[in-house]
Amino acid sequence: MTKAGTGTAVAVEAPAVAVRLPRRRGIELALIVVAVLLPVYGYCAVGLARHGTLPPGAAGYGAGLGVLALLAHVAVRLRAPYADPLLLPIGVLLNGLGLVLIYRLDLETPGDRAAPAQLIWSALGAALFTGIVFFLRDHRFLQRYAYVCVAVALALLTLPIFFPAVNGARIWIRVAGFSIQPGEFAKVLLAVFFAAYLSANRSALAYTGRRIWRLQLPTGRVLGPIVAIWLASVGVLVLERDLGTSLLFFGLFVVMLYVATGRSGWIAVGLLLAVLGAVAVARLEPHVHGRIEDWLHPFATADAGQGPGQLAQSLFAFAEGGILGTGLGLGHSVLIGFAAKSDFVLATAGEELGLAGLSAVFLLYGLLVERGYRAGLALRDPFGRLLAVGLASIVALQVFVIAGGVTGLIPLTGMAMPFLAQGGSSVVTNWAIVALLIRVSHAARRQYDGRVAP
Amino acid sequence: MTRHIRHAAVFCALLLAALLVNAARIQVFQAPAYDDHPANRRPAIARYGQPRGDILVGGRPVTGSKDTAGRLRYERTYTDGPLYAPVTGFASQVYGSSLLEDTEDGILSGTDPMLAPFPLVGDLTRARSRGGDVVTTLNAAAQRAAYAGLGARKGAVAALEPSTGRILALVSTPSYDPESLSGNSATVARSWAQLNEDPSKPMLNRATGQTYPPGSTFKVVTAAAALDAGVVRDVDEPTDSPAPYTLPGTRTRLTNESEGCEDAPLRVAFEWSCNTVFAKLGVDVGVADMAATAEAFGFNATDLRVPYAVAPSTFDTTVDRAQLALSAIGQYNTRATPLQMAMVAAAVANGGQVREPYLVERTTTAHGSTVAAAGPRPARQAMRPSTAVRLRELMRNVVEDGTGTNAAIPGVTVGGKTGTAQHGIGNSGTPYAWFVSWAQGGRALEPKVAVAVVVEDAAADRGDITGGGVAAPIARAVMEAVLGTAR
Questions:
Q1: Which residue of chain A comes nearest to B12, CA vs CA?
Q2: Which tens digit of pLDDT belongs to each residue from A118-129?
Q3: Which of A96, B200, B251, B372 is the right S-S partner for A39, CB 3.0 to 4.6 Å?
Q4: Chain A residues 278-337 within an 8 A CB cutoff of chain B
Q5: What is the ipTM of this complex?
């Protein structure tokens, strides 16, 4: 650990003093009430806009979301009383907003309803959250199972190869009528593995090996396994054509390596590899090549008279929203087509809630990430720090990749907007991420409580 | 490690900032360009997202809207589509709109700012006003009579109220059902192709969009010019005109269909439609005065709107004397829409004043309160009132014992003028049968209706084509319909 930091970093080095930290569970409860009421209000707004009446299920829906949130809150109160009070309400609000948007889009596609399934998955996610908060007493427990995690992660990533491709990507498995995207779960497991391995081999990674120009290369013995596992996971994803997730894994790998070793050279190497990889894939892969063409010329198909593509429709939706939006239920983002509820769900938020609503959503994600980083900064054990950074970075990178894609900032790669998008695996995974962040932040804040030995 | 975690956090913050900046770029700065992109269907969705206002004839809507529950939700329907097609036009989701559907689109679709009680609030909430209604001046009975009168023949009818310019009937046959162009199904494309390929041009609005040589009906204009210019002072004095008449500067001899035209006085010449007399009168009046009178009636005006544009009727002002002689009997380059010839008849009926014709009485909001009403239209003196009095007499004679007896209505004062217009190369085409007239009910203070009828009857035997035989009965039916409802 360096001493260069100030503020919190100084506190890290400071001896424990006999102060009693506020636990702030009351604040969390108040925020959860707000986070439940806002989506219920949105649900009512959709009903009023579309049918002129309150939707019949509004009370039940609000009660369901409220019960889930309260269960999670009770688990936090009992088992992680020092946890950051913002994490859970942000998760509840984003998940509730996602349910409203999907319910709203379901109205346009009466034959294909996604909201009920999403609600079931959200319940499963909340249950998993409760389970993790309740039974995982200390995050350091995970460190012991790093290799189990990576083995399961690789197995999960490999599994979809044996199932047929859906929409050009081989990333789903179908079990009992439910589509599961195992790669989603693998992200968390891989973050756990990276955190464990990197924290164990930090010094060796940073200070051994040959030096080339200004870059200190670690020895193959230390770096080898992690690069191999990373290559395997990215390789599998390229085979499955899930480029969004491989980009995410790559970014996660570089960020965690940089944070663990403190070598800025890794960023240079990472960027170089990313550019090389992107160029190679864009040249060789027609699927990716098309995506880049779409990004550079989103209106090419429209101008050629073949109708606007998904990205063009998405841009139209954002533009229609303007600053204040059309209002929930009053937009036409369903024109985007089959991915409107999943990859492009943000376009509905942009059209119906406007720049104001969209910025609020982005800031919620920003706050979630920031709270993750804050927990990482406050912790003392390297594993916990790296885990918190890794989990927060997953959220940040994922939001950037998909939101940047649907707003034309970067080429589009299929990925789920955390909590917002249709997709059970994604919702469950994100609840797991929030649960782990709760555990980590509980550990981080508890160590300053004078009554508890660190 | 702390420092590097902070670096990573800054990196994440930069990603977030990039997203926010980019979202602002699209939603604020690029938004107008994207909103107006032709491939963006939102304007069309909003436009068809609510029922369209209606076009009313005699207080009843002749249009409707049908909820298809599709993305472009409401489709246009028409009651008696073919009957009112020359007035309503069509409103298609694929092919746009025409005629009143087009010119009154702002009211009908609800975009007209006059429909919103508080325009600024509407801009803020982006709320759309409900479509308003367009109340036409049409007389349903007259419209039906004209349509039934034309039947299977090709032709057109235009009827006006002389004292106001209100259009009472506007019919064109063969017609089409504008409903077949509503919506965006495959059948719409088929109908569109079929209607456009049809050699009888059912979508052509013959009443306002097509000009014909007016033939002898133009003699009303020539007579007005001659009387106004003082070339004829007494309608019963011989006109010193030979029969046949050799066109000035040529050897071409102009003849008549009727006997007794040599030196005939204006009354007789008008009654029996003597070409020779009117050709010579035109030449005697001169091109300047002829053109001035024709233009006072509305010829050569390119800006007539009812409110949709009407094809300009023409009287050539750069002619030699021989061409002037032919122009004066409604041939050569003289061309007129049926509406224009109805205006000529209306001017005679209205003491020499031409009232600009109009089709929209008023527009209303969906709740029926008036948005805009047809104000007084400018009147133009086409001839002296005394000339108009004499012309009324001449036109009455035509119906009482001339070529137009088929238009006579018992107990009603009717004035008319027949016409049989030659056209085609070397006059080879089947002639057009014309009839223009006006009618004044027994106890009415002024004429209530002026009508122009043209029949381009391609199927009939050429010898039978005379305005009196084919067109006059249709005009009579229309006049009876108007007087029957007005009496």
A1: A396
A2: 999 999 999 999
A3: A96
A4: 299, 302-303, 307-308, 312, 315-316, 318-323, 326, 332, 335
A5: 0.91
